[in-house]
Design goal:
alpha+beta; Immunoglobulin-like; 6-stranded mixed β-sheet; 4-stranded antiparallel β-sheet; 2 helices; 18 strands; disordered C terminus; binds 2-acetamido-2-deoxy-beta-D-glucopyranose; Ig-like domain-containing protein
């Protein structure tokens, strides 16, 4: 190739880089080839290629994904075993295997082939890593007593494009609920002035183009005036009255038997007292 270049005589032309794509999408976990072609008129013995990535997650901290320099290669630790050139030195294309969300961002392919002009050939492309929504987390907070207000929230960690959040009430009847998305990353729903009709099963759906995942909340509103509450109250009062009645009867009976006993004792005391009272006089009499 280098011989051919020399023969054709590119000398004098600056090295140029062409990106065959400017935007690429890949499903997380899949492989993707990032294309970067270049034209040079010099031999390739001193070719130097650097791929950098400015990740969407931290664009201010670009990393060197892979470097080709004088036939040697060096990879960033986060890409070791996952990245490789596919046709170096003829092309600067690389393949990324087992893609992750963190691989998304702006890639730059920089090709330098001394002694060709100092003009660095640079190409740029954007890689988007698509992923299904992860399992969302459903939560509720608030006052579940009648008349209170309850907030249902649903948060989903992963998913590109950003999953949309929907809330539905599933039972006893199915109704969609309005979600308050503005300024709230976790799709939340506020239910004010809750009543027994608010009780039921609620479902959050997190969905994007690649799929949908659900989580659920089972709400039961505490209503002190519910019919079962009244029934319980009546039953409790009734059983307590019965116990009270039984206790009154018992106390009365004990009281009466107790009085009888004491009365009999006193009578016996009186009799014996009488006997003792009479005895001295009997003795006196016998002495007389
Ligand atoms: C990427 O995966 C392909 C197919 O499994 C494999 O042939 C290739 O060697 C891998 N490349 C790297 C850099 O791991
Ligand atoms: C709450 O709901 C009940 C009936 O469900 C209604 O009578 C009451 O006026 C409502 N209160 C407020 C503050 O909206
Ligand atoms: C929701 O809770 C109620 C009462 O606590 C229960 O009867 C019902 O089976 C629950 N439903 C689900 C789907 O868990």
């Amino acid at each position: 190739w280098s011989k051919m270049s020399e023969q054709i005589g590119w000398v004098g032309c600056a090295l140029t880089v062409t990106m065959r794509e400017s935007n690429l999408e890949v499903l997380r976990g899949d492989a993707v080839t990032l294309p970067c072609s270049f034209f040079t008129s010099s031999p390739l013995t001193k070719l130097n290629v650097i791929w950098t990535l400015a990740p969407f997650s931290s664009p201010e901290n670009p990393i060197q994904v892979i470097v080709y320099d004088h036939g040697q290669m060096m990879e960033d630790p986060s890409f070791i075993g996952r990245v490789g050139f596919t046709g170096v030195p003829w092309s600067a294309d690389i393949i990324l295997n087992d893609t992750r969300e963190a691989d998304a961002g702006v890639y730059r392919c920089m090709v330098n082939n001394p002694p060709e002009t100092a003009d660095l050939g640079i190409g740029e492309l954007t890689l988007t890593v698509l992923s299904r929504p992860s399992l969302p987390v459903c939560q509720w907070e608030g006052d579940i007593a009648e008349g209170g207000s309850v907030t249902l929230s649903c948060s989903v960690e992963e998913g590109i494009p950003t999953p949309e959040i929907e809330w539905d009430k599933l039972s006893p009847e199915e109704i969609p609920l309005p979600v308050n998305m503005d300024g709230d990353p976790s799709g939340s729903v506020q239910i004010v002035n809750v009543s027994s009709e608010t009780s039921g099963l609620y479902r959050c759906s997190a969905s994007n183009a690649l799929g949908t995942e659900h989580c659920y909340v089972n709400l039961s509103i505490y209503t002190p005036d519910s019919p079962s509450g009244i029934l319980q109250g009546v039953m409790l009062t009734l059983s307590m009255s019965l116990v009270l009645l039984a206790m009154i009867l018992l106390v009365t009976w004990l009281h009466r038997t107790g009085q009888d006993g004491r009365w009999r004792e006193r009578k016996e005391d009186e009799e014996s007292y009488n006997e003792i009272r009479y005895t001295p006089s009997l003795i006196k009499r016998s002495f007389v």
